[in-house]
Design brief:
formyl-coa transferase, domain 3, 2 domains, single chain, Rossmann fold, 3-stranded antiparallel sheet, alpha/beta
Length: about 375
């Protein structure tokens, strides 16, 4: 697999860091999850469980090894530093300053391994006026102005379905780590990565910055192309209280749809720009879709060359034949479902190890790999360094 031989030390908790390292583990990296004493990784205990393992944990920690270690103890830091000398990548997602207090900041560990790629994931980054603010995904979306354009039917900001800041930090973080590893092959030197959730979201908004950049004004959300201003890029309710979407605003799609409806007179109202001038077409679609159930429209659009889709609930979505064909929902030997691998290589494809580690399961194994004797391991347990 692509990352065979790469060793990763994951100090992060919750979602962004564990997702990043999960993607690496699926491609062959040896990921060692350093869990704090006590209850360990918090997402072990969040949400529904199967066989006493949370679905959240199983889908962010499969195939990893668990080392439960007290970094507040001098011997714990010594063990972690010894591990640093052998890994290629370190991922941390503490609030800025915490890694330093634990003796695990980049400045602390870089001298131990000049080839080390070290990534810090945080809400606002390692510098700036917000550096000490506590925050998870939602707060970063609010500060960045992104939540203001995520509106419900009542025109008010709505809770986003996806923790965008978390997941973009994870995926951009993976890209950054792989860039640094690639560069290391040329220079022999590692690097430090400062990656903020807030930065990651702004970087993913180039198609929505028109009014904000050109006119220096906040957008009128309902008039914007992808937020309701286009008749052909919108959500419509059906007679049975379900929904369908028209998902592409190109004029040739509008022509195909309106031709079948016998309403090509409305084509001019689907022409750009988006906004109030498209209201006659939006009114027509709202009224016509409300006359039949969702299933009727699925059949009706089967022969139409247009980006139409039914709005499925999450359970229906997981059973979608496209996702199943692409193996984005996969089952283990017990028939339990898991999220599949989105990165698909022709050569050396990734491989899922469905086993999620027990808390501290690999304590002794990792210590022995680092040269600790059985007596030294026992002393670390007695002193509370290992749980």
């Amino acid at each position: 697999m692509k990352l065979d031989g790469i060793k990763v030390l994951d100090l992060s908790l919750f979602l962004p860091g564990p997702t990043l390292t999960q993607l690496m583990a699926d491609q062959g990296a040896d990921v060692i999850k350093l869990e704090p004493t006590g209850d360990g990784e918090p997402n072990r205990h969040i949400g529904q469980k199967r066989d006493d393992v949370s679905v959240y944990f199983a889908n962010t920690h499969r195939g990893k090894r668990s080392l439960q270690l007290n970094l507040k103890h001098e011997s714990g830091r010594e063990l972690a530093h010894r591990l640093i000398t052998e890994v290629d990548v370190v991922i941390e997602a503490f609030r800025p300053g915490v890694a330093s207090r634990l003796g695990m900041s980049y400045e602390d560990v870089a001298p131990l391994n000049q080839r080390l790629v070290y990534a810090s994931l945080s809400a606002f980054g390692q510098s700036g006026p917000y550096v000490n603010k506590p925050a998870h995904d939602l707060a970063t979306e609010a500060y960045a102005g992104i939540l203001s354009v995520n509106l419900g039917n009542d025109g008010k900001p709505a809770l986003p379905a996806i923790p965008t800041g978390d997941m973009l930090a994870a995926t951009l973080g993976l890209s950054a780590v792989l860039m640094a590893l690639l560069r290391r092959t040329e220079t022999g030197q590692g690097d430090y990565i400062d990656l903020a959730m807030m930065d990651s979201m702004i970087a993913c908004m180039p198609n929505s910055m028109g009014r904000a950049f050109a006119d220096k004004e906040a957008p009128i959300v309902k008039d914007e192309r992808i937020w309701g201003g286009s008749a052909m890029y919108n959500i419509y309710e059906t007679q049975d209280g379900k929904y369908v979407v028209l998902g592409a605003s190109e004029i040739h799609f509008a022509r195909a749809v309106l031709r079948k409806f016998g309403r090509e007179d409305l084509l001019a109202y689907c022409e750009p720009p988006p906004g109030k001038q498209q209201e006659p077409a939006r009114v027509f679609f709202r009224e016509i879709f409300a006359t039949q159930d969702q299933e009727y429209w699925i059949d009706w659009f089967d022969s139409v060359d247009a980006a139409f889709a039914p709005v499925k609930d999450l359970r229906e979505g997981l059973d979608d034949p496209q996702l199943r064909f692409r193996e984005m929902i996969v089952e283990d030997d017990l028939g339990q479902e898991h999220i599949g691998m989105p990165i698909k290589f022709l050569r050396e494809p990734g491989q899922i190890n469905f086993v999620a580690p027990d808390l501290g399961e690999h304590n002794e194994e990792i210590c022995r790999e680092l040269g600790y004797s059985d007596q030294e391991i026992q002393e670390l347990k007695v002193s509370g360094v290992l749980s």
